[in-house]
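Bumping my old thread because nobody answered last time. Still need a sequence for this structure:
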């Protein structure tokens, strides 16, 4: 059973998956910084400084109303935190757009590499006579 496990781990798909997960985790930090530090401030500037993450509806109906989402959560009040949802949707859309652009760039790079390899293969001289060519030469030699 140990040998089967070693063979399973050594397969390329498992190693590729592990590398993908590690790279994905590192890339997540970059994308989160892009969204949180660069894009969300621009969105805040466009929307007049509205911080969506602090928008909520206090479901406890207590007076006086809570002034922030943090205060309501600290008090244990039930809240409908629709602003956090809006922020999550915006972050998702931005992350999806960044990943789309990244995949598009990688695909262009792969296509360019494939075209270059195809051009090099087409320009390369023939590898030599094929087996059929050699058999024809032997046949012709035997006929003489």
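Sorry it took so long. Here it is:
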């Amino acid at each position: 059973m140990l040998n089967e496990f070693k063979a399973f781990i050594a397969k390329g798909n498992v190693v590729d998956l592990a590398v993908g997960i590690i790279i994905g985790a590192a890339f997540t930090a970059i994308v989160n910084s892009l969204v949180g530090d660069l894009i969300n401030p621009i969105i805040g500037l466009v929307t007049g400084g509205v911080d969506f993450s602090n928008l909520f509806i206090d479901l406890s109906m207590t007076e006086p109303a809570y002034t922030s989402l943090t205060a309501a959560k600290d008090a244990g009040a039930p809240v409908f935190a629709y602003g956090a949802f809006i922020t999550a949707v915006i972050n998702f859309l931005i992350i999806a757009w960044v990943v789309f652009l990244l995949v598009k760039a990688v695909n262009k790079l792969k296509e360019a590499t494939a075209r270059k390899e195809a051009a090099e293969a087409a320009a390369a001289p023939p590898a030599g006579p094929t087996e059929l060519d050699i058999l024809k030469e032997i046949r012709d030699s035997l006929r003489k």
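The chain has a mean pLDDT of 82. Let me know if any region looks off to you.
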